[in-house]
Amino acid sequence: MAVKSIIEGITEFFLQCPLLQDGIFRVDALGQDAVEYVIETGICDPIIQRYVDGSTERQYQFQFGSREYYSMDRLQNIENSQFYERLADWIEENSLSGNLPEMPEGMSAEEIEVLSPGYIYDGAMENARYQIALRLLYYKEATKNE
Hints:
Blueprint: H1 6-15, E1 24-27, E2 36-41, E3 47-50, E4 56-69, H2 74-96, E5 107-114, E6 119-123, E7 127-140
Parallel strand pairs: 1-2
Antiparallel strand pairs: 2-4, 3-4, 4-7, 5-7, 6-7
């Protein structure tokens, strides 16, 4: 069964990640309790290149974020950073091997790029938000007028 949207395909892709703990997984919303994960859509010009037949090379920028346990404990925070290092490796390995998100009809995923390392976005004494910026490159066929 084909996915109906790019965000649905990206979400299904990340749900396959063996690094994720038993946490809540959301789209465009992240709660205050650890451990939760989120995919958030980004802002960008989606068209990279337009071809004469109307087809396009496109990008879909997004962030993968999480709410993690956080404290003054050095080991806890190193563990959080290591998770994002391993996540970036998992994303790059899957991209290189062609294991990419399923796309809606007329679109095909070509690559997922890591645009930034994982970093702390918002910290508090109990838990913190970490995130990594990503970009999905894909091809979109021209719309056929009948």
